[in-house]
Design brief:
It holds the Pfam family Mur_ligase_C. By secondary structure, this protein is α/β, with parallel strands linked by helices. The protein contains 15 helices and 17 strands. Strands 4-3-2-5-1-6-7-8 form an eight-stranded mixed sheet, sandwiched between helices. A six-stranded mixed sheet has the order 12-13-17-14-15-16. Strands 9-10-11 form a three-stranded antiparallel sheet, covered by helices on one side.
Length: about 425
């Protein structure tokens, strides 16, 4: 019997381009499979540039706190492909994944299709055959032509903050990218729009007018903010005084707010303030400002060194993470050291720039799990360009071993960042993969 890794490797050979945005191949395969996308549980569809995964994590935690059964589809994975498909709260098991991948591969019969498309079709088969109250469906790339955008009538659509990323596929301006993201909007389906720059908000509103999708816009129809150490959410239904979310960073207040606004727009789900509060306190989403307090990598660092992990990889992600590191510095001052690896498709200089004046230096490392990884020398050059002293290393372990405690200073605060691929490698090396 094949294992899932062997099947996934084989599926990569079915199309010459890893990313080729189109719905034609997907609809052909779904038709051959008997259209499982028409038998899915009620869907909440989530698009955007930053914060999609965190928003899905908040939704899942709040829904499960109410006793709802929830399927989840996210990407990319960190350590194992199984993380992308969660069935009623649990990651898909190997047996079910292998059987479904083999079935879909057989029905596809060698036709050209990207790996993401065929694995999304397999996920739809799994979701359609197992009852659940809600399916949380995260867009892979863009929205309009993404393989997930075959669901005609979701419960709701969400667009998290939109910024420059994947410009070679989605457009050279943030407004063009916003049009692609807004392709998930459907007639009569409420759409919850997180905080956007004015031009993006205007673009999404124009697209929603064409699609006839009613909007609930952050800062206009709802808002989520911190007051006196509490999260305050407010909309036309009233005000919720809530605990701050377990996920760190002020940017998570907006992600939590988008989740809350969505659930309050769907009263049929019966989500109460108590369910929302429990979700905020119990939410979990690895590699998003995650502090690693145990594992193999801590043994490579000086005693009492703080080790943090975040998969941020674009300029907006850099700004959000740097802001949180700055807040930690204000509370307890420690030298901040970055261990960073990045892909050649990302704006490395723009990512590092927010750390200027905050980080003492950058230890650049390779990303071995992606052919698109920049060399450590290239990453170090980008950090130097952004005003951060940097040096390349052959591995994550070598970089961590080079961290020292400066005389007269507390042990440092080390942040491993720059890519979700790198974050996955770190969790695997640390012996703490997602479960």
């Amino acid at each position: 019997m094949n294992d899932s890794n062997a099947i996934l490797a084989r599926l990569l050979t079915l199309h010459p381009r890893v990313i080729d945005l189109s719905l034609g191949r997907m609809t052909r395969l779904l038709d051959a499979l008997g259209n499982p996308e028409r038998s899915l549980p009620p869907v909440i569809h989530v698009a955007g540039t930053n914060g999609k995964g965190s928003t899905v994590a908040f939704l899942r935690a709040m829904l499960e706190a109410s006793g709802k059964s929830v399927h989840v589809y996210t990407s990319p994975h960190l350590v194992r492909f199984h993380e992308r498909i969660r069935l009623n709260g649990k990651l898909v098991d190997e047996e079910a994944l292998v059987a479904t991948l083999e079935e879909v591969e057989r029905i596809n019969n060698g036709e050209a299709i990207t790996q993401f498309e065929i694995t999304t079709a397999a996920a739809f088969v799994l979701f359609a055959r197992r009852p659940a109250d809600v399916l949380l469906l995260e867009v892979g790339l863009g929205g309009r032509l993404d393989a997930t955008n075959v669901v005609d009538r979701p419960l709701a659509s969400i667009i998290t903050p939109v910024s420059m990323d994947h410009s070679s596929y989605l457009g050279e301006t943030v407004e063009a990218i916003a049009i692609e993201k807004a392709g998930v909007l459907k007639r009569g389906v409420p759409a919850i729009i997180a905080a956007q720059i004015p031009s993006v908000r205007d673009t999404i509103e124009a697209c929603a007018g064409v699609a006839r999708s009613p909007l609930l816009i952050s800062g206009q129809d709802w808002q989520s903010r911190e007051e006196r150490g509490r999260l305050v959410f407010e909309d036309e239904r009233g005000l919720l005084d809530l605990p701050l979310p377990r996920l760190r960073g002020r940017h998570q207040y907006e992600n939590a707010g988008a989740a809350i606004a969505t659930l309050r727009a769907l009263p049929e789900l019966g989500i109460t303030g108590a369910h929302i509060e429990a979700g905020l306190l119990n939410v979990d989403w690895p590699a998003r400002l995650q502090r690693l307090t145990k594992g193999n990598l801590l043994d490579l660092l000086p005693p009492e060194t703080e080790l943090w992990l975040d998969g941020g990889h674009n300029p907006d992600g850099g700004r959000a993470v740097a802001a949180t590191m700055g807040e930690l510095e204000e509370r307890v001052g420690r030298p901040l050291i970055l261990v960073a690896g990045m892909l050649n498709t990302k704006d490395s200089e723009g990512f590092f720039e927010p750390f200027r004046g905050l980080a003492a230096g950058v230890h650049a490392v390779p990303i071995t799990s992606s052919d698109a990884g920049r060399s450590p020398a290239e990453v170090a050059e980008a950090a130097d360009w952004a005003g951060l002293p940097a040096r390349p290393h052959d591995s994550i372990e070598d970089a961590l071993r080079s961290v020292i405690v400066e005389e007269g200073h507390l042990p440092p605060r080390v942040l491993i960042t720059g890519s979700l691929y790198l974050a996955g490698e770190v969790l695997a090396l640390n012996g703490t993969p997602p479960v």
